[in-house]
TrEMBL record:
Residues 5-239 form the ABC transporter domain. The gene is phnT. This is 2-aminoethylphosphonate ABC transport system ATP-binding subunit PhnT. SUPFAM superfamilies: MOP-like, P-loop containing nucleoside triphosphate hydrolases. The keyword Nucleotide-binding applies. The keyword Magnesium does not apply. GO terms for molecular function: ATP binding. The lineage of its organism: Bacteria, Bacillati, Actinomycetota, Actinomycetes, Kitasatosporales.
Amino acid sequence: MSGGIRFDSVTVAYDGNVVLDSLDLTVEPGEVMALLGPSGSGKTTALRAVAGFVRPASGRVFLGGRDVTGLPPYARGIGMVVQQYALFPHMRVEENVAFGLKARKSPKVPRAEIRTRVAEALEMTGMAGYARRYPRELSGGQQQRVAIARALAIRPGVLLLDEPLSALDARLRSGMLAELARLHRELPDVTILYVTHDQVEALTLADRIAVMDSARLQACGTPRELYRAPGDEFTASFVGNANLLPVTVGSGGVAFGGGELKVDTEGAAPGARATLCVRPHLVGLGEGPNRLAGTVREIQWRGATHRLYVEVDGHRVIADLRELRDPPAHGDEVTLHFAPEDATLLAAGVGHD
Ligand SMILES: Nc1ncnc2c1ncn2[C@@H]1O[C@H](COP(=O)(O)OP(=O)(O)O)[C@@H](O)[C@H]1O
Ligand SMILES: [Mg+2]
């Protein structure tokens, strides 16, 4: 069974508090959609609305084109993995993985079929050798693989993952991230909704990212679109790092501090206040187009790169540079630059006072 997910103006409230506000979002069949946003922005709530654990105050949820808003969780054919594994401690790995299949009543899944599917799910998650163990005999990463195997055993059309890597340490996380990408290649028909507050996970795994902020969908697009041309300041700073400079729109450029910067101002009204977004890794050191002259306030050596914090007309500009042979020192006067095509003009927001 395969099919996409559609939120049609879904609102969820707890005690009159709206925590998900008229969410409209479509996840295409076989697509990986990341729900990215800070803690408390409503991501888990959106996921639970799909799973059927929370009833929307208004709006509809569709799975594979079917309205499932009134259906109980077990009737939705969904696999779900949450942050804290949630394996049954008294059951062996194979029993944990078989759980969802054994729970099926009509039609009942035959024993031989359960065995086949459990073996298949454990194989897919690299846990075939651990079938007889108990959860306490596994590492955190292995437990999470079992949780994923359990979700896959029912052969779900839709897989919901809620911060599945956040309980793991950094090294394990990046390994599991690659594993999840491989799993998706092996199961291209499964639609995945992946909740995370980690931009790296969203950028590496997702076909598209839905950015959430305070119960609302703020932006939705491919990682590349959101990174290259974020539509707003929140998205700019949440998907990648961003320098956000308060500017005033001129003709063919913007005024910043005492100077003029050449950038594309199409669609912006001359005289309007706006925010210029420039990614730190697209800022260069030395003379070039669009000069920014300032004082080095901090310099960090990060192995492959140097990060410079430069004060320009009272604003902080970050430049991530390939490791410098002869880095400037704290307090040095430097010139930075960026190419006009590497800047994006956003509607004014928090950058202005
Ligand atoms: N069962 C609940 N009862 C009351 N408030 C809740 C409940 N679940 C979540 N909330 C509130 O809803 C908001 C969104 O929560 P959640 O969807 O878990 O956010 P996220 O997953 O993005 O961190 C938060 O303010 C949270 O405190
Ligand atoms: Mg959450």
